[in-house]
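User: Hey, quick favor. My workstation is busy. Could you predict this chain's structure for me?
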Amino acid sequence: MTRIDEQAAVLALAKATRRQPWHHTARVIAAAGSALKLMDGDVTGLDETDQAHAADLRSRVSIEDLDQARDLITTMRAHCVHLITVLDDTYPGNMLWANNYPPFVWVRGRMTPEDYRAVAIVGEYDSEQAAAAARALAEAGLTVIAPLRTDLDAAVHEAALEAGGRTLGVPIGGIAAPDTLGSYTNVAQQIGRRGALVSPFWPDTTPADCTITQERVVTCGLAATVYVVDGGDGGPSHRCAESVLKTGKHVFVPQQLQQEHSWVAQAGFRGGITVVQDTDDLSKHAVNLVDMCSQTTMF
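Assistant: No problem, here it is.
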């Protein structure tokens, strides 16, 4: 069987997922080492729970599903978008730190092996500080990762690109959906030329509240560490930081955020959060952390 057959099988199994979240399907496929094996009933090495999930998926997949998946892969390739599945050597290794990694991502642009040296920047309103951080990280030779949903996100990408760096952008919808990029189409084009847009959704998925949640999972999943610019108690940044810490990844925050909001100390009471004084301090700590990381991560 060819690589496109395996990829099509991954898409078909993801589409067939009903009773469990997609990341359960991703984990089962990765454990089996082949989506085609699962579809043939080979569940060697899987525990009883995963075997039951595989059987449920297999019962829902048809030959037509596989044909449609192959056609979708071919169509997207014609539009310069390629598919990476959890079975591919190019699947982002940083993503595997989390327990909720997606079974596939669609990519417009180019990901490189060096993109494992990446810092995600998330925030809510301080575009100026977010841009300054992106510029410093890019100048330090790190890849910058951010969503592409708000003016702050756009400022992050533009600052990093202007500094000569690379960025990975995670849109909030399907990579081919008309409403996904909104007013950020020009920024997305710049990202595609100098980095990559990475989407975990079906290409025609319309942005919604649930896609924003998954976008954050992928934004932080692609990174080796995360810088949280701002955000109040219980807000998106707070929730994002807590989620990142649960995966074992490190979080950086500016001193002002620590001083203004109690959630920083509460979230980091077991460790995992470093307070930085300025963007130079951030760059120094981020480079040291990424370069000391022993995780083997390939794209």
